[in-house]
Design a protein that fits this description.
single chain; elongated; mainly alpha; 3 domains; about 0% strand; 8 helices
């Protein structure tokens, strides 16, 4: 039996043969051409919010819940939640860190934790935390390469 690469070569522009689809089916052992010899790619099922869910997101955000919490609960990207809020003409809140959080972040970072480790530990956005500790006067270390497992 021919290898797949041999069949592909026969169909390529570099081959001097003129091979038909029927000949390829014969070479590959597939009869009639109706059988599929490969599995179709599975598409990722994106979660979408229906109208009721969108209304609930707007109401809950208005009641004080964060966009991050809502995104996690509805299993959608945070950008999806923000888009729903903007489409509903809701003013999106900034979520600054409290002075206690900034102080703790600075201490953890200066103790040797990375920006991403500190942000994860405090459950805040990394860029928000980075900007807050810079504003507090913390001098950032040079970036290091992530350790691979």
């Amino acid at each position: 039996m021919c290898r797949s690469v041999d069949i592909v070569y026969l169909c390529s522009n570099k081959s001097t043969t003129s091979v038909t689809a029927a000949q390829i089916r014969e070479i590959s052992g597939v009869e009639g051409g109706s059988e599929r010899t490969f599995q179709p790619r599975v598409k990722r099922g994106w979660n979408h919010l229906n109208a009721d869910q969108q209304a609930a997101v707007v109401a809950r955000y208005g009641a004080g819940e964060t966009s991050t919490t809502l995104a996690e609960e509805y299993r959608v990207a945070k950008s999806t939640i923000l888009r729903v809020l903007r489409e509903a003409r809701v003013v999106v809140r900034r979520q600054p860190m409290t002075p206690d959080q900034v102080s703790e972040a600075a201490q953890l970072y200066e103790a040797g934790l990375s920006l991403s480790q500190v942000a994860k530990r405090l459950d805040v956005n990394q860029e928000t935390m980075r900007m807050a500790i810079l504003k507090a006067g913390v001098v950032l270390r040079a970036p290091t390469k992530a350790k691979t497992a």
